[in-house]
Amino acid sequence: MAGPLDDLLVLDLTRALAGPIAGRLLSDLGAQVIKVEPPDGDLTRATRPRQDSMAVYFVQANVGKRCVSIDLTTEAGRDLFLAMVERADIVLENYRPGVMARLGLAYDDLAAVNPGIILGSVSGYGHGNPWSHRGAFAAAIQAETGLTADIARRRHTTPRNDPASQADVYAGFSALAAILAAVHHRHRTGVGQAVEVDMAEATLVANDMTAINLRPDQEVTDGFRSGSNWPPCYQLSTGRWVCVTADPAVEGGFRALNRAMSRSGRGDGSEAVDLRDDPRFATMTDRLANADELHRLVADFVAGFDSAAALEEAIGVSTVLVADVRTAAEIRDTEWAAARGAFLDVEVKPGGEPVTVPQAPWRFSASSSGADPRIGFRGQDNRAVLGEVFGIDDAELDRLEADDVISARLPAWFESTDPST
User: Fold this and answer.
1) Which of 60, 79, 94, 133 could pair with 14 in a Cys bridge, judged by C-beta atoms 3.0 to 4.6 Å apart?
2) Can you say whether the dihedral through the CA atoms of 215, 218, 221, 224 is positive or negative?
3) DSSP for 234-252?
């Protein structure tokens, strides 16, 4: 089956993460995505670890794309790119606002050669405002939008950066949605347009606690509170950690856990414990004030079980789940991942060790979807793409190479194996 977007051609100018994720998602949905890199390449190509000279981090965000490299700062490079735009459906970029205009590639320049073009722009704070000029690393966006402070406050720690680049990911998925909306609008009207998405607003929307955090004067201590029930993690008798989706301080969680503790005790047969008459735990306010002791008692209870399934069965409440705290490698090796096809092996070097990446999270009943297990080095597909897709002859390609308008950086082993053939 064909992918739902297999009639779309995307020119992806993005680097790092927020933009490349959007490009990868378009590719996962069947679009032909051509990654267009400058001579210095995507900065994430320099990250480690590596497999056969390819950065593993780069593979996850760019799998399925074909890779060309053009120096857009040259007049010939700009002209070449505009010739490509004539046949494209979407241009995706995540430069700081104003850079595309300085390159002579603003929306009006693109639309002059292709009125139906959709320009998708991802930036830190959006265009045309006092913060537009600011840089946009995920950690900075998360700090500026309240996410870092919120995590610190609720975990009772000093602020520290989250290792996951959440702001980038939120912006990438938001950009996908906006671009698909623009494609639908063009289908109805025939009109292309510029679409811009900023990481800051994407993060504010994705944080389900934003509205609550805007009302600090209404902080409550009793009752079910959004965001108050951080699911705790405890250790089983085996030493393995599990996450229990019931906060013992919240009324419903306390009731469910105490019922299990008073009914069956620990899984090892030790004496049952009933906390209902303990004045330290009478109300949610009391339980919060004595949270350390409460968690110790629950931890003792959990430590009597040897598996998440056994503990979940003992609790016996459908809304309380017990989940193993797994590594990515551990979930990759589960029967769920195998049945779902949740991971994909991408071969960098023919016959070499593959790089395993997450597969796209959707399945269609009447279309195919998912990442194409291919990855390219900078400029690897210059001749194939520019010749086959855009009709540029060999003589012109030779001239562009001689003038360093197009270039490539390939590992030493590449010429002998030529994985593009």
Assistant:
1) 94
2) negative
3) EE-TTS-EEEES--TTSHH
Residue 141 and residue 16 share a domain: yes
Specify the DSSP element, H or E, that contains 308.
helix 308-315
Q: Got the DSSP string for 81-146? A: HHHHHTT-SEEEE-SPTTHHHHTT-SHHHHHHH-TT-EEEEEESS-SSSTTTTS---HHHHHHHTT
Amino acid at 29: L
Q: For residue 382, which amino acid is it?
A: N
Q: Which of 101, 202, 226 is nearest to 144 (CA)?
A: 202
| 419 pLDDT more than 50 | no
Closest C-alpha to 85, from 105, 64, 62: 105
CB 342 within 8 A of CB 359: yes
260 lies in the same domain as 391: no
The model's pTM is 0.91
Kindly state the average pLDDT of the residues 107-116: 98
Give DSSP secondary structure letters for 323-336: EE---HHHHHTSHH
Q: Helix crossing, 166-189 with 18-28: angle to 10°?
A: 50
Number of domain units in the chain: 2
Long-range contacts of 285-294 (CB under 8 A, 24+ apart): 285/221, 285/222, 287/248, 287/249, 287/254, 288/221, 288/249, 291/249, 294/248, 294/249
CA distance 260 to 273: 9
Amino acid at residue number 48: R
Phi, psi of 54 (to 5 degrees): -110, 130
Shared-domain flag, residues 387 and 309: no
Residues 189 and 110 occupy one common structural domain: yes
Question: pLDDT (tens digit, 9 = 90+) per residue, 144-195?
Answer: 999 999 888 877 789 988 889 999 999 999 999 999 999 999 999 999 999 9
Residues 6+ away with beta carbon under 8 Å from 206? 166, 170
**Beta carbons within 8 Å of 100's beta carbon, 6+ residues apart:** 93, 106, 107, 119, 121
The number of CA neighbours under 13 Å toward the Cβ of 378 is 21
| Residue whose pair of structure tokens reads 């405890």 in the numeric block | 234
Domain containing 302 equals 241-324
Q: Are residues 91 and 191 in the same domain?
A: yes
Specify which residues 234 forms β-bridges with.
Answer: 242
385: DSSP letter = I
Residues forming beta bridges with residue 34, ordered by sequence position: 11, 66
